[in-house]
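Thread: Newbie trying to understand structure tokens

Hi all, I'm a second-year student working on a class project, and my supervisor (Dr. K.) asked me to get a predicted structure for one chain before our next meeting. I've only ever worked with sequences, so writing a 3D structure as a token string is new to me. If someone could post the tokens and maybe explain what I'm looking at, I'd be very grateful. Here's the chain:
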Amino acid sequence: MENLVIEARLVSPIIMQGHLTFDSLLGALAHEKLGDWSKIPVKQSDGLFHASSAITDPFAKSSVGWAASMRWQHDWPVDLMPLNSRGTPQALSAKRKREFGQVLSGYKVLHTERIRWNVCGDRERISALIRDVKAIGKKRAQGYGHVEGWVYRLASEDHSIVGPEGQPMRPVPHDMFDGDKSLPMTEAAWRPAYHDPRNRAACYAPRLH
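---
Reply by user tm_fold:
Sure, no problem. This is what the structure looks like when written as tokens:
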């Protein structure tokens, strides 16, 4: 394993929601190419990957919105369900769901030429996973987050979890963090699968953009 700085050179603005850790980026690729997200070629310590959240500076911000139909075949949040006479949510049939209109969603857009991550991992295996990745983040099919190329640099130290000033470089559970504990904590997902609420905890984490 090597201490690396991995950089994505961007040719279009990017939409990111939450902490875009490098292991979350690799996880989907590992599942697609290797059939197992746990085969991410990055160092782990008690389930915590040595892979920082995306570092995006300098950058400018804007916002964009899309109106789109709701995905009626998916499970819907309880607060979208009508209430029956007993005041409890009433299940909706597929026919009723299809009759619902469009929903307007807003996204924050970051305008930057590059995004980088601090990673301790196997450079050759990482490169094999990401070399064909042409876009990252949300709304890739709409032209956001397109990648011109990837750049790798060796780093003298591992700053994938804790930065040089003791700051968190990714979400880290409070009992696993050995940096500056005077910083505030937040609830965040800290390991794959990031959508699973069982993988959320009180964490020290970088400030979201």
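A couple of things are worth pointing out once you decode it. The radius of gyration is 19 Å. Residues 75 and 118 are 36 Å apart (CA to CA). Feel free to ask follow-ups in this thread.
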